[in-house]
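My current task is to audit a protein record that another person submitted. I have pasted the whole thing underneath without changing anything:
***
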Amino acid sequence: MFKTPCRANCYKRTNEKLFQLKYDTIIMKKTVHTIIYTLLLIPAIALAANEMPMDMKHKHSPLELPESAYTPQLNISITADDMSGYNLNLDTSQFQLESPRNIGNTPKGVVEGHGHLYVNGTKIQRIYGTDVHIPGKHFKKGMNQISVTLNSHDHRVWQKEGKAILSTVFINTEKEKLISHQFSTFPVVTN
């Protein structure tokens, strides 16, 4: 008598093969996606490491300091305002921080210009003096980045040896100690 194989076993083996085939296909797709994302992201990350955030970029090329000029120095500090928002203070040295209408009255070896204020990578305003109030609407809850660049009056960022002259503070609006981290490319040094 001729015996046919058990249909249940055949069905089970067929399902196992289909499952394995689907599993292998999913793994292959994930591997291909990972490779594609890696090939796309690594160059993007490498470029981003050398550039300012998108909103901090200007259409203007940076401006290298003349060899005869002193290196401008900049520190920023920030405090919560009693009414609302935050108060920013700029401490500069060897830089004439001023309005464009005062162009040309700088001491020899000192460059002039104004600052650009950024909150979380978005340009908020120009700065012509040492103290600025920043309305609270520009901040989110938690960590925020506040940066100031020193710019010439044609809005190009001053730089020395390829490094932009800027100062940044990170604040956490939900902590008692407001400032979490502070950085300046060319800080003001006091003796």
